[in-house]
Design a protein that fits this description.
single chain, about 550 residues, 8 strands, about 5% strand, globular
């Protein structure tokens, strides 16, 4: 049953008064989750640990007030660890301190680009990428995180022959036998116990205990254990929060034109994509089915990244784990994100050297848990169920990302998807241009309905209010890909949530592109029944 619109929580000061207790409680619980994760993400990114908290604080205290989504939590994300660490290593040429400041310049420029993305309404950018390639990118990020953090869990920070930290995933994997042979016994004990907590705590059935985030339990166990073992691998704040405000952003990375531009693009593109995917996912979890303003949210994240870069912090996104926890904790408005930021700000002022107690193997265990969720075996199984071609796109994206970088990896996934579409009968002419006809609330599509022409189809559908009855006719299509099928399912739900109805016709004439019974599997027309695009276009505007 849909929640009545009259019950939708108010925004602004009225919303603060109305929902203070729920949002403050959720903000505190998210703070408990964000504290160790932000420290761990910063350390894994080769930034000073305190900078993870600086970004989380900015995302809560400042960005929450201008964000376009009411329930997402803004802060540093594990999904950007690979890019940030790569920027520090490449721009600094092994000098971590210099690399950090040069990376900040790229973060600031990327923030400006994200604001431009929002101004030119590129919030729909998330709809352009094939879902399997996006999932492949996230899985690759998960594997890269695991490949690095396994070494840290065992008390080793792997370096190459020149003494520089290893960042390439295949090199890190190749180095694992050596790390196992030289592991630090005490660090390994702390790391493995922390890892057990990360994976076993969520399985606890007791509702009250489940409210406590696993990272908090990890710290409660790992800190005294590390003290007992006299562990030396501890997080350390080199500067107080006030001292961090004197960071000088270095834009001289512009002199390394190609490298600098590459990381600006990756921060802007991958950060925006992850942020938009999170907004889309959290909208689906919102009990009041509020629809976020994706373009406004992009501008808010861009503004936050400029401020974070100036203050020395990590790039931020709308982070999915903390955001979904926020919803589960009963948050009602943007004030929950604000409170989470206020609690972090308080910790920054009153940390009392608490960071010197946190063992890095425990943070590594938390990040391995994050990486595992991104690259879970279930993801591979889901792709295989949806279709063999989707599994292929997924795996190609992963492999190329591991071998090169995220931009090349996502590009390889897109190309693989386009090749498979052509093979399954999508006319080349309709791959990037949607051939449509809109009469009243009836939309006809000819040729193909695929991720690369979805924006044109979606633009026409957006002109129909979700409160009305609409029909999308795909009977003149030879191929409808997995991304469009998935998007249509979500769009159908959006119509139903607002009292309207979206009817999809024409799919009954198509069959799964591969031997898949999944409801979101790509569909194709048999070769002998394929519709001529020329003929379909001629008939498109006929009633």
């Amino acid at each position: 049953m849909n929640t009545s619109k009259k019950l939708i929580p108010q925004d602004g000061i009225a919303g603060l008064k109305e929902n203070f207790s729920q949002d403050a409680l959720s903000g505190f619980l998210v703070f408990l989750l964000a504290l160790p994760l932000s420290l761990g993400i910063a350390k894994a990114s080769d930034f000073p640990a305190i900078m993870g908290l600086v970004t989380a604080m900015i995302g809560g205290v400042f960005v929450s007030m201008i964000a376009g989504s009411p329930l997402t939590i803004k802060g540093p994300a594990a999904g950007l660890i690979v890019i940030v660490a790569g920027a520090v290593a490449e721009l600094g040429h092994g000098d971590v301190s210099l690399g950090w400041k040069l990376a900040l310049g790229a973060v600031v420029v990327a923030g400006v680009i994200q604001i431009l993305f929002g101004l030119i309404k590129m919030g729909s950018l998330v709809n352009f990428f094939p879902l399997s390639a996006v999932h492949g990118m996230l899985a690759a990020i998960g594997l890269i995180i695991i490949s690095k953090q396994l070494h840290i869990l065992l008390g080793i920070n792997p370096v190459n022959e020149a003494g520089k930290p290893l960042v390439e995933p295949f090199e890190l994997i190749e180095k694992l036998p050596d790390t196992f042979g030289h592991l630090d016994k005490n660090a390994t004990i702390v790391g493995l116990i922390s890892l057990l907590i990360v994976f076993l705590w969520p399985r606890i059935k007791q509702p009250l205990l489940k409210k406590i985030p696993a990272p908090v339990i990890v710290l409660l166990v790992a800190i005294p254990l590390a003290k007992y073992l006299s562990l030396k691998q501890l997080v350390h704040f080199d500067k107080s929060f006030i001292e961090t405000l004197n960071v000088n952003v270095d834009f001289s990375g512009f002199s390394q034109t190609g490298t600098f531009i590459k990381y600006v693009i990756m921060f802007a593109l991958v950060g925006s994509l992850e942020a938009l995917l999170t907004v889309k996912a959290i909208d689906m979890l919102d009990p009041w089915h509020r629809k976020s303003n994706a373009n406004k949210d992009l501008m808010a994240v861009g503004t936050g990244n400029i401020l974070a870069g100036v203050l020395g912090g990590l790039p931020m996104i709308s982070e999915v784990a903390r955001s979904s926890s926020n919803v589960a904790n009963g948050a009602r408005t943007r004030w929950a994100n604000f409170f989470h930021g206020v609690f972090i700000l308080g910790f920054l002022f009153l940390n009392l050297q608490f960071s010197d107690l946190i063992p890095t193997p425990a943070l590594a265990a938390m990040l391995i848990g994050v990486g595992y969720r991104l690259a879970s075996p279930k993801e591979f199984g889901l792709m295989a169920k949806i279709g063999k071609e989707q599994l292929m796109v997924f795996c190609v994206t992963i492999f190329v990302t591991l071998a090169t970088d995220l931009l090349v990896g996502i590009a390889a996934g897109i190309v693989t998807e386009l090749i498979s579409q052509y093979f399954f009968g999508a006319p080349l002419e309709s791959m990037f241009k949607a051939h449509t006809s809109l009469r009243g609330n009836n939309l006809k599509v000819a040729g193909s309905a695929v991720f690369s022409n979805w924006l044109g189809i979606k633009r026409k559908l957006d002109s129909i209010p979700n409160t009305e009855k609409a029909v999308i006719d795909l009977s003149a299509c030879n191929f409808v890909d997995h991304t469009v099928i998935d998007n249509l399912h979500h769009l159908k739900r959006d119509f139903e949530n607002e009292g309207g109805n979206l009817t999809i016709i024409g799919l009954e004439e198509l069959r799964p592109a591969t031997n898949s019974n999944h409801e979101h599997a790509a569909l194709k027309r048999s070769r002998e029944k394929r519709v001529s695009l020329k003929h379909a276009k001629e008939n498109l505007h006929q009633s």
